Amino acid sequence: MYSYFTKLAILLLFQLCDLYLNSTSEYKDFVQPDADFKIESSRSNKIHLLLCTLQILAQLSSFTVMFSLLCETLPFQIGLIGVLTKHFSFMLCLQGLYLSLTILTSGLRLVSAG
């Protein structure tokens, strides 16, 4: 029982981390107005790349924890994977779509900033 709540807390922590990194990379400008633009732009791109990488890692980690939670269910343990797939396929597809859109928008953000 404690294992479930521990994994759920870790999943929520990864989701909050993803939310923070998404909002930080979207709305924070890392260029200082009084500095050299070329140097600061390069620094800003590196910070955005780091934030995007951390966000993708947080999403992959949350998917791993979610899959780990599914592995502990009785239908998975007795081999009824089709039942789990039927009930949770939408959630897993949404997680994949969200990861794909994150990679796409991060790439577009880095290309437009550079």
Summarize this entry quickly.
The chain is mostly helical and 114 residues long. The chain has one domain.
Q: Main traits of this protein?
A:
114 residues; mainly alpha; 4 helices; elongated
Describe the overall structure.
By secondary structure, this protein is mostly helical. The chain has one domain (2-113). Helices cover 86% and strands 0% of the residues. The chain has four helices and no strands. The chain starts with a helix and ends with a helix. The model has no long low-confidence stretch (mean pLDDT 82).
Number of DSSP E strands: 0
Q: Uncertain segments of ≥5 residues (pLDDT<50)?
A: none
Class computed from helices, strands and strand pairing: mainly alpha
**Distance linking N and C termini:** 49 Å
Mean pLDDT across the residues is 82
Helix residue percentage: over 70%
Number of domains: 1
Q: Proportion of β residues?
A: under 5%
SSE order and pairing:
Elements: H1 2-27, H2 37-71, H3 74-77, H4 81-113
Helix pairs in contact: 1-2, 2-4
